[in-house]
Amino acid sequence: MQKILDLISEEMKKAFEEAGYDAALGRATLSNRPDLCEYQCNGAMAGAKKYHKAPLVIAQEVAQKLTESEVLAEVSAVAPGFLNMKVKESFVRDYLRNMRENDKFGLAKPEKSKKIIIDYGGPNVAKPLHVGHLRSAIIGESIKRICRYAGHEVIGDIHLGDWGLQMGLIITELQKRQPDLVYFDDDYEGDYPVEAPFTIGELEEIYPTASAKSKEDESYKADAMEATYKLQSGVRGYRALWDHIIAVSVADLKKNYANLNVEFDLWKGESDVHDLIPGMVEMMKRDGYAYESDGALVVDVKEETDTKEVPPCMILKSDGASLYNTTDLATIMDRMEHYCPDEIIYLTDKRQDLYFEQVFRCARKTKLVNEDTELVHIGFGTMNGKDGKPFKTREGGVMRLENLIREINEEMIRKIQENGETKGAAVDMEQAQETAKIVGLAAIKYGDLSNQASKDYIFDMDRFTSFEGDTGPYVLYTIVRIKSILAKYEEQGGKLTDIVIQEATSESEKSLMLELTKYSAMMEAACEEIAPHRICAYIYDLANAFNHFYHETKILTEEDAEKKAGWIALLTLTREVLETCIDLLGFSAPERM
Ligand code: ARG
């Protein structure tokens, strides 16, 4: 389906042409004076010079050609030469009827469907998930859903941090605690136990303990590095222990991500490309890209146009160990070989901006990627507390994700009870908890996604969980309200099928309808700009338009059955659009609130 602005522009172009002017001048835009008109066109202003005519005269001539228009109800030429337009009720009605009949509300397929890999989440095995990983998961999941919905082939990869020093630290600490474990017996040749010698709870305690010790004790750190090295060079017992660590962690991570409504297609990690590293390094040396510098192996990536210093990309440390860069480069190689994507999108904190710049340049220079494969880093800002500093617990520690979610849920339950009480309804505790989980997730995700990703934002529990204002719960509340009206309509004997949208009969109804017509343009922009906040802004406006209409209209007591059914059809479309949008943001609406 064509976008509404394109249809209006077409109408304008015809009129410009008929009046003897260049059709290209007829481009229409949304009005920036909604109090005066719905759409506007500034083509007469632009044409004045070329045609040596007063813009107002051109505008008047064009307006003349539109008196019989099927699209425009009002076209006025105003000084100094603007064209202000209002669209016909019947045109909007037909547009919305089409939206209801078309797949994805008429969203056009992309010119070229791309294969996109999204690298997001990026948790580190055995380290607890903290709020720093939250943004990557939330934004990445939404981008994955948006691009997929828009018609691209999208693969989401969690890219586990499962190969670095943290693994050596855990193994070292285990060895100190349980030196007799069979994994540490070099002479052991039998099978290793199926059960892990630790639980997830122990694992989460072991890592911080080991990490703290290594910072104080040089020899402990040396042991951990040695253990990392042994693991990476394939010592059997170490690999077996590592398998346990991964299995226990991944099971826990899956549970955590499921609670967040986040799903990955691939659970690959840094370790998966370990075997590719020697070949890649060899190639980089052979082709003359990599050279030795202070014992380390590096590739120069600076460019003449750089305004800031871009240091060389390090491929191997002086002890021959690989780094975060090395695994990322090898992962690019692996992805090209297995998926040959048109684009790879990475989601991390924006503090990794320079890092990705180096990695991308190195990948291009060494030809690990095809020339036309795009590498995109989306660096997001920090989630701050109300004090403007990175979000911490009340005690001042790093907030763990589970705790954050628990706190939100508690606050949500409180708000749901409060809301029930003001309505005089009894609140069923079990149901309130179920609802709180759904609404709490919306509060967190909307609070995050409604900001442009690159910006820092303040995590404000009170605001995010509010049922009013630009929040997730407000949008859900609106959906629940629509659902309840639709249910009551059915109770009255009305049917939700075979009903059609009618012409608007009030200002608020038309505003709601016009809001709905913006869907395709908004969705295209959200996908092209990789910008979930576009969807948030849209559903907030849509929810406002709906609530305005709702407060001004007695829907269920309307006596004209056709009119009433038309409103119900309009509500159905509003609900479907809102539900589609929140699904793309990664949350859903409860039955009641
Ligand atoms: N594990 C990393 C971290 O916690 C994030 C990984 C991001 N993805 C990547 N391909 N480097 O910072």
In terms of DSSP E residues, the strand content is 5-15%
Helix content: 40-55%
Distance from N terminus to C terminus (CA atoms, Å) equals 35 Å
Which structural class is indicated by helix and strand composition? alpha/beta
Main β sheet profile: 4 strands, antiparallel
How large is the radius of gyration? 29 Å
Q: Which spans have pLDDT < 50 for at least 5 consecutive residues?
A: none
Q: Bound compounds, please? A: arginine
Question: Numbering strands along the chain, what is their spatial order in the largest sheet?
Answer: 1-2-4-3
Number of strands: 13
Q: What value does the average pLDDT take?
A: 95
In summary, what is this structure?
Helices cover 52% and strands 10% of the residues. It has helices at 4-18, 43-51, 55-64, 89-101, 131-150, 165-177, 200-216, 218-232, 236-259, 277-286, 324-338, 353-365, 401-422, 429-449, 461-464, 472-491, 507-517, 519-528, 532-552, 561-585, and strands spanning 28-30, 39-41, 72-78, 82-87, 115-119, 153-157, 290-293, 296-299, 313-316, 343-349, 374-380, 383-384, 457-458.
Key words describing this protein structure:
593 residues, alpha/beta, four-stranded antiparallel beta sheet, four-stranded parallel beta sheet, binds arginine
What can you tell me about this protein's structure?
This protein has 593 residues and is an alpha/beta fold. Among the domains are: 4-87, 2-Layer Sandwich (Gyrase A, domain 2), CATH 3.30.1360; 165-259, no CATH class. Helices cover 52% and strands 10% of the residues. It is built from 20 helices and 13 strands. The chain has helices at residues 4-18, 43-51, 55-64, 89-101, 131-150, 165-177, 200-216, 218-232, 236-259, 277-286, 324-338, 353-365, 401-422, 429-449, 461-464, 472-491, 507-517, 519-528, 532-552, 561-585; strands at 28-30, 39-41, 72-78, 82-87, 115-119, 153-157, 290-293, 296-299, 313-316, 343-349, 374-380, 383-384, 457-458. Strands 1-2-4-3 form a four-stranded antiparallel beta sheet. Strands 6-5-10-11 form a four-stranded parallel beta sheet, with helices on both faces. A three-stranded antiparallel beta sheet has the order 7-8-9. A hairpin with an 8-residue loop joins strand 1 and strand 2 (39-41). Helix 2 (43-51) crosses helix 3, helix 17 packs antiparallel against helix 19 and helix 19 runs antiparallel to helix 20. The chain is globular and about 90 Å long. The chain starts with a helix and ends in an 8-residue tail after the last helix. The chain binds arginine.
